[in-house]
């Protein structure tokens, strides 16, 4: 019985020739991540573990992104605690305001993750790096502390679902539409405890930004991790961002998958998740008029340069609808600069949107765009739970940058074709 | 491990944003987190919860964010055990790591009603409903996880060298 991509990476990092689903393994980690919300809890736990030093100061990283730039005094104290800890421990990859970006956009950009790595992060969207062919998963703060202390984490080896992609995406359709479609199909616990493995000839039409977005939302189907087969697009990305050599793990021909889904990318339409679960998906051609008050384009899901480019091209020369607040958040400093040089930021500002410094901000109802009662937002973020972006009666509709941009112009949930 | 408590019951997909809204994540103080536990789903929870109470829920309990503040808030509220049909995976491991007792049972979740009194004997895998007299069998934890639980969580397990 063969192994899946995920099982092979776990076996290699546990020093085993073979693992099977259900087995408990202690895995050696290549990277341990935390942010300004989860790290303080981890630092407290680390200090109780009786270790003087982190296992490897190059392999621990902290990113101040959730409530940074500090939204209030308590948030400032939390960032200070992380800053002091990283200073004392001489942690190389500490990213503060000025260098930071949203963690899951930042780490691949900085080349901190390559194919074949095993990564944990005290943030549920750590599954993003599966796009690079790595095993990467979200954990809590105590797991992060354990990772910092001994460089290991315990895992139950997951079974897997296979997503065989074929065909090609149509114009103005992106990775976000694909992953929302999949979550709508299998549900928010459709992949609970499992791996989602993405393979097939359809990968060729998916950019790295599409794949990062899709792997990012594997957690929204309950998955332990999402992982993409490594191809030339992955290799080129890793080569451009890291000096480390990627290690490629391919699934065995007789690997066991609980189920295989064949997805024809050419059939994917503009998909929107209605409140209050990501599985409540509808396509834009089947919905009635839904007026909105806010649009957010950004987050670890969709704050990359490709996302801003797609939005800017749709918004170019138009105006944000009266009564709509459109907030654009480039995910990292590099993306911010490149979007400025490419003229996208000028486009956004001229059409009446605002552009923020990188932050998770409104995605989790932190700051920079909180919703009042009964307000509706279209967001390129990843969760639309009750109260996620503000008041408990507010509503979040998850969508692609293309749909979000078009909706900002019309003031209602719209497909890009309506404004082009 | 044995506990007895009165049941507070919720439905499916109780997410970490309602267990502890992100607006309170600027602190990791256990008491402060407990004072806002469940407030976006049930603003009566903090007023009625008693030390030792048992929370019962449906599928996919604790879905969403990795915030350990969620099981911390529940534990600090006085909840001694969470019974659900299934748990989101990060919530599941966080609960084990911090020493919040959790157990999966579809049958128990369906049968147990709000206000029932439950005695849980986790070593022997039995939930007894004192109100109705029913028993529900549950799976014991695998040995490795049992070690973490017996040590009182992951921090102690590392500290005493049970996990290296």
Q: What can you see in these coordinates?
A:
The complex is a heterodimer of chains A (420) and B (164). With 420 residues, chain A is of the alpha/beta class. Chain A has two domains: 5-265, Aconitase, domain 3, CATH 3.30.499; 272-418, 2-Layer Sandwich (Aconitase, domain 3), CATH 3.30.499. Chain A has helices at residues 5-14, 39-48, 73-88, 103-109, 141-150, 175-186, 208-216, 232-241, 299-302, 305-315, 333-341, 344-350, 401-410; strands at 24-28, 31-35, 60-63, 93-95, 118-121, 135-138, 152-156, 160-166, 195-199, 225-228, 259-264, 271-273, 281-283, 294-297, 325-328, 354-355, 376-379, 395-398. Chain A has a five-stranded parallel β-sheet with strand order 4-3-2-5-6, covered by helices on one side. A five-stranded parallel β-sheet of chain A has the order 16-15-14-17-18. A four-stranded parallel β-sheet of chain A has the order 10-9-8-11, with helices on one face. In chain A, strand 2 (31-35), helix 2 (39-48) and strand 3 form a beta-alpha-beta unit. The longest helix of chain A is centred in the first third of the chain and has 16 residues, at 73-88. Chain A is globular, with a radius of gyration of 20 Å. The mean pLDDT of chain A is 98. By secondary structure, chain B is of the alpha/beta class. Chain B has a single domain, classed as Aconitase, domain 4 (Alpha-Beta Barrel), CATH 3.20.19.10. Helices cover 31% and strands 19% of the residues of chain B. Chain B has helices spanning 16-19, 30-34, 45-48, 69-76, 89-98, 106-111, 143-150, 154-159, and strands spanning 2-9, 54-57, 81-84, 102-104, 117-121, 126-129, 135-137. In chain B, strand 5 (117-121) and strand 6 (126-129) form a beta hairpin. The radius of gyration of chain B is 15 Å and the shape is globular. Chains A and B meet through helix 2, helix 3, helix 5 and strand 7 of A and helix 4, helix 5, helix 7 and helix 8 of B.
């Amino acid at each position: 019985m063969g192994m899946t991509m995920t099982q092979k990476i776990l076996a290699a990092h546990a020093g085993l020739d073979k693992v099977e689903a259900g087995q408990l393994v202690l895995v050696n980690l290549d990277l341990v991540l935390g942010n300004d919300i989860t790290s303080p809890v981890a630092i407290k736990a680390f200090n109780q573990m009786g270790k003087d030093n982190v296992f490897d100061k190059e392999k621990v990283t902290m990113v101040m992104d959730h409530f940074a730039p500090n939204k209030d005094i308590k948030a400032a104290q939390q960032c200070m605690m992380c800053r002091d800890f990283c200073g004392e421990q001489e942690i190389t990859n500490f990213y503060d305001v000025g260098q930071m970006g949203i963690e899951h956009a930042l780490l691949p950009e900085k080349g901190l993750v390559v194919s074949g790595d095993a990564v944990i992060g005290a943030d549920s969207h750590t599954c993003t790096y599966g796009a690079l062919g790595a095993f990467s998963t979200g954990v809590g703060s105590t797991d992060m502390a354990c990772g910092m202390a001994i460089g290991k984490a315990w895992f139950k080896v997951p079974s897997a679902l296979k997503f065989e992609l074929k065909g090609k995406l149509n114009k103005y359709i992106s990775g976000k539409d694909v992953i929302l479609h999949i979550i709508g199909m299998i549900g928010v616990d459709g992949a609970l405890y499992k791996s989602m493995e993405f393979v097939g000839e359809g990968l060729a039409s998916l950019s790295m930004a599409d794949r990062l977005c899709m792997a990012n939302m594997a957690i929204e189907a309950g998955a332990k991790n999402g992982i993409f087969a490594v191809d030339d697009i992955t290799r080129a990305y890793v080569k451009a961002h890291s000096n480390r050599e990627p290690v490629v793990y391919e699934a065995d021909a007789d690997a066991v998958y609980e189920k295989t889904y064949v997805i024809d990318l050419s059939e994917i339409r503009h998909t929107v998740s209605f409140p209050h679960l990501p599985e409540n998906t509808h396509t834009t051609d089947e919905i009635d008029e839904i007026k909105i008050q806010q649009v957010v384009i950004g987050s670890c899901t969709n704050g990359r340069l490709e996302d801003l480019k797609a939005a800017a091209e749709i918004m170019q020369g138009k105006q944000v609808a009266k009564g709509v607040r459109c907030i654009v958040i480039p995910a990292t400093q590099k993306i911010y600069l490149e979007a400025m040089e490419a003229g996208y930021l000028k486009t956004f500002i001229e059409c009446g949107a605002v552009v923020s410094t990188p932050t998770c901000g409104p995605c989790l109802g932190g700051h920079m765009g909180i919703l009042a009662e009964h307000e509706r937002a279209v967001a390129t973020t990843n969760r639309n739970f009750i109260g996620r972006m503000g008041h408990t009666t507010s509503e979040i509709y998850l969508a692609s940058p293309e749909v979000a941009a078009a909706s900002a112009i019309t003031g209602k949930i719209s497909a890009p074709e309506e404004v082009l | 491990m044995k506990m007895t408590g009165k049941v507070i019951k919720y439905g499916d997909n109780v997410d970490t944003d309602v267990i502890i809204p992100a607006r309170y994540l600027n602190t990791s103080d256990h008491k402060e987190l407990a004072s806002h536990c469940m407030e976006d789903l049930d603003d009566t929870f903090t007023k009625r919860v008693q030390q030792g109470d048992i929370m019962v829920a449906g599928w996919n309990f604790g879905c969403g964010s990795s915030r350990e503040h969620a099981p911390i808030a529940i534990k600090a509220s006085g909840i001694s055990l969470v019974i659900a049909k299934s748990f989101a995976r990060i919530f599941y491991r966080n609960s084990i790591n911090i020493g919040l007792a959790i157990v999966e049972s579809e049958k128990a979740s369906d049968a147990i009603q709000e206000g029932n009194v439950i005695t849980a004997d986790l070593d022997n895998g039995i939930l007894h409903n004192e109100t109705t007299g029913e028993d529900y069998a549950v799976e014991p934890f695998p040995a490795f996880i049992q070690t973490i639980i017996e040590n009182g969580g992951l921090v102690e397990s590392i500290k005493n060298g049970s996990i290296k």
